Amino acid sequence: MSDGLAEGSREQPSGTRNERLRLLEAMDARGEGVEVLQCALTHAMAELGGLGGMVHLGAKGVAGELGLAASSGLPSTFTGVWNIIRQGDSVAPAEATRLGRPVWRSSLSGPASWSDETPPPALPGLPADVGMISVPIPGPAGPLGVLSLLVPSKAEPGPDDRAFLQDVARWAAGMLLRAVPDDGSEAGPLAAASPHARTEPPSDGAAGTWEIELSTGRVTYSDTLRELISEIDFVGRADVLDSWKDVVHPDDVEKIGKDLSRAASLGDEYESEFRVRRRNGSYGRLRTRARIVQDRSGEVVRITGRVWDTAWDAEEDHAALGSVVRVLSAVRAASARAALIDQLTRALTEAVTTQNVVSAIAESVLPAFHATGLLLCSVRGGRLEVLGSVGYRRQFVERLSGVSFPVESPVGQALRTRAPQFFASEEEVVARYPRMADFPMAMEKDARAYLPLVASGRVIGAGILSFSGPRHLSREERTLLTALSGLIAQALERARLYDDAATRARELQADLLPRELPALPALTAAAHYRPAGYGAEIGGDWYDVIPLSSDRVALVIGDVMGHGISEAATMGRLRTAVRTLSDLDLPPDDILDRLNSIIGDLGEDYFATCLYGIYDPVTGDFTFASAGHPPPVVLRADGIAGHLALAANPPLGAASPPFDTATVSLGDGGLLVLYTDGLVEAMGRDVDTGTAQLTRTLADALRGEPAMPLDAVRDTLVRALLPEDEPIADDAALLVVRTRQFAPEDIASWSLPEEPQAAGLARELVRRQLAAWNLGEEFVITTELLVSELVSNVILHAKGPIGLRMLRSWTLTCEVSDASLTTPLIRRSKPTDEGGRGLQLVSALSQRWGTRYSANGKTIWAEQRISPQRTLYATDADVRPRPV
């Protein structure tokens, strides 16, 4: 490590140096600080063959630190470590700043932030032996900063190289000191100052001499120096060395000691600059240069030197400091701008919906500009439509949306000219556009920026950034907002396309799901569906409640695997198929068998889970089959809760029939919960854990309130498993059912003989039962006709045994069963036919009728609507269809 010339130093004077300096001198004096520094680095690196370069700034008084202001040819992994250098560090830039002369280091040691355990980061392609030459950038009161180049260790810059670098540094200093401030004011008083001022002793003999005898601590001065120190506020005697410790600025004491110790140990020349307290309380700046005198044994016995007043001028120092601060501020501002653009770009890239865009702007842009309000608006037919807002009252936003705005208004001008409009206050808005005095926005905010949002060559809306008080945006801030408006416009256009597509998808899905659940005597049901929190794709979760014959009810829930329009369409196909198959009154396993065939016909990539079950209010039993679907959770009337175990059949599309079935007795007041995996499965919660939580929540909710309304039960489960503040990755469907079991007195059944007299016996039995149920004569006549025709049909076309059953609920159901599998059909009879009109009569007299089959035969059933006054459960609030 050396501050002098090495034997193998690089010394290759170039004929281009003068040309480079002339190019630098020809540069516009109004060039910005960062541009000046980059230009200096470019020419310095090109001339010396540097591998990379840096410029640090930090005039005296800037927190004792040097801040990286510019770099060239170096990656951020390297410059990041050199971002801040303390002026007391033992690295070339700090040494050059302290000593005021070029410093060469043959090895690349780093700032104090580096330690032996954390060596400097390796640079790809950088030779192993790299040195650094640092040259101070001179200023009126000491260096403004330092210019450093990385060069191979064997190519140490020689005198001509150093002289060239010093010329470049002086040029940079002059440019920095002449630079016009960003606020547009004129250059400061240092415009004509020499960067060399006061770093050398005055030539007019104004420097004083001094001598210190270390053995006695006595200081002797020349007459010139006595005049100089007469203004110093000594507490003790000025000719005693210890007295100086009391008048030197506390921050400079340690520095003087280190400089002196270093000079004494090396037998070198001593030079230092320090501040001293004047009698008026202010501080002046002295510079001293001394020689170490040693005896024959090498012991330091005396120090002699000269000292002079650097004629420090507060105004000049402040101006120099201002130049440095402006450049550093510009660097930091550029870094902040880049960081803000990067942050907003990343946030907008992830933004999916319009509200995501609003949130991204609110989190990134508003704090950066200290803004308090944001409006994102589209414009249709000369009217504003607020797409999103931050910092405004809901009532104001509602009042603003749909308001017509004049062409001669800030919004109108911004959209017409595609140029932003900036206003420092509300008064400025009204002064330029008087009609805006009555515009609703005038009552909400003060300073505002109106940004046209242009994407794909067309205006799609406006962004309005607002402030609670007056606010003048600088030129840089306006430029940055203009640039950001382009990013916002592109993100907003994407988000609106997504919102439109998502809205259409949601509407499609809503059309495919039940709009309301039917009111049924056998049960009440409540449902909930929640789409996934993110992504434009809709899901394939679905459910349905389907009335069957004899007041039985089919309950079905399913989940088409995947997300998208195709999956939603598949869900629609399945729901339609289930309803069609349910009309055939098929058992659950048969239903799943046929659905499996439908899914298989769609292709190999289609799969769906499904659970289909039938609840019979006569027995209170629920019989179901599942194809890969989560098991139902039940809470029986006796208070026992649990999920129903069933063999795990594969999903539809991958299953091989037959499907297993199971039956559970629910009874009157039992609760049945059907759901998709999106309800119970979440981040950090698997299906089994979620199912256990669902079961526990259901039991806890009804333990204290067994008769809790079904809507409240549903909402309790949703709050527990689908919190509003936690977005879900998969859509979720929930169907909650409370069952009813018919009382024995509402059921009547008989066995009839296989004889012609069976029809007459059936009529008699019906008449008696209707009387017992207190149903009027109108039911007696029609019911006798229905039963007579159905029984006669069995006698003529089927075989026994014959069964007759009647059910009383919201309808009167008559069933006639036999052992035949022959399908009864309504046929057109000729006028001369004696028979064949029985089923026509049944169809005419009943509300609906049909046939269902079992392993032992078939049952023909017919329903008649009972008037509300005679309907059972007439006080139940669920007699009307329930909106989902």
Automatic annotation (TrEMBL):
<dbReference type="InterPro" id="IPR036890">
    <property type="entry name" value="HATPase_C_sf"/>
</dbReference>
<dbReference type="InterPro" id="IPR052016">
    <property type="entry name" value="Bact_Sigma-Reg"/>
</dbReference>
<keyword id="KW-0067">ATP-binding</keyword>
<keyword id="KW-0808">Transferase</keyword>
<feature type="region of interest" description="Disordered">
    <location>
        <begin position="185"/>
        <end position="208"/>
    </location>
</feature>
<feature type="domain" description="PPM-type phosphatase">
    <location>
        <begin position="523"/>
        <end position="739"/>
    </location>
</feature>
<dbReference type="InterPro" id="IPR013655">
    <property type="entry name" value="PAS_fold_3"/>
</dbReference>
<keyword id="KW-0418">Kinase</keyword>
<comment type="function">
    <text>Primarily acts as an independent SigF regulator that is sensitive to the osmosensory signal, mediating the cross talk of PknD with the SigF regulon. Possesses both phosphatase and kinase activities. The kinase domain functions as a classic anti-sigma factor-like kinase to phosphorylate the anti-anti-sigma factor domain at the canonical regulatory site, and the phosphatase domain antagonizes this activity.</text>
</comment>
<dbReference type="Pfam" id="PF08447">
    <property type="entry name" value="PAS_3"/>
</dbReference>
<dbReference type="GO" id="GO:0016301">
    <property type="term" value="F:kinase activity"/>
</dbReference>
<dbReference type="InterPro" id="IPR036457">
    <property type="entry name" value="PPM-type-like_dom_sf"/>
</dbReference>
<dbReference type="InterPro" id="IPR003594">
    <property type="entry name" value="HATPase_dom"/>
</dbReference>
<dbReference type="GO" id="GO:0004722">
    <property type="term" value="F:protein serine/threonine phosphatase activity"/>
</dbReference>
<protein>
    <recommendedName>
        <fullName>protein-serine/threonine phosphatase</fullName>
        <ecNumber>3.1.3.16</ecNumber>
    </recommendedName>
</protein>
<dbReference type="InterPro" id="IPR001932">
    <property type="entry name" value="PPM-type_phosphatase-like_dom"/>
</dbReference>
<keyword id="KW-0547">Nucleotide-binding</keyword>
<dbReference type="Pfam" id="PF13185">
    <property type="entry name" value="GAF_2"/>
</dbReference>
<dbReference type="GO" id="GO:0046872">
    <property type="term" value="F:metal ion binding"/>
</dbReference>
<dbReference type="Pfam" id="PF13581">
    <property type="entry name" value="HATPase_c_2"/>
</dbReference>
<keyword id="KW-0597">Phosphoprotein</keyword>
<dbReference type="Pfam" id="PF07228">
    <property type="entry name" value="SpoIIE"/>
</dbReference>
<dbReference type="InterPro" id="IPR003018">
    <property type="entry name" value="GAF"/>
</dbReference>
<feature type="domain" description="GAF">
    <location>
        <begin position="353"/>
        <end position="502"/>
    </location>
</feature>
<dbReference type="InterPro" id="IPR000014">
    <property type="entry name" value="PAS"/>
</dbReference>
<dbReference type="GO" id="GO:0005524">
    <property type="term" value="F:ATP binding"/>
</dbReference>
<keyword id="KW-0378">Hydrolase</keyword>
<dbReference type="InterPro" id="IPR035965">
    <property type="entry name" value="PAS-like_dom_sf"/>
</dbReference>
<keyword id="KW-0479">Metal-binding</keyword>
<keyword id="KW-0464">Manganese</keyword>
<keyword id="KW-0904">Protein phosphatase</keyword>
<keyword id="KW-0460">Magnesium</keyword>
<dbReference type="InterPro" id="IPR029016">
    <property type="entry name" value="GAF-like_dom_sf"/>
</dbReference>
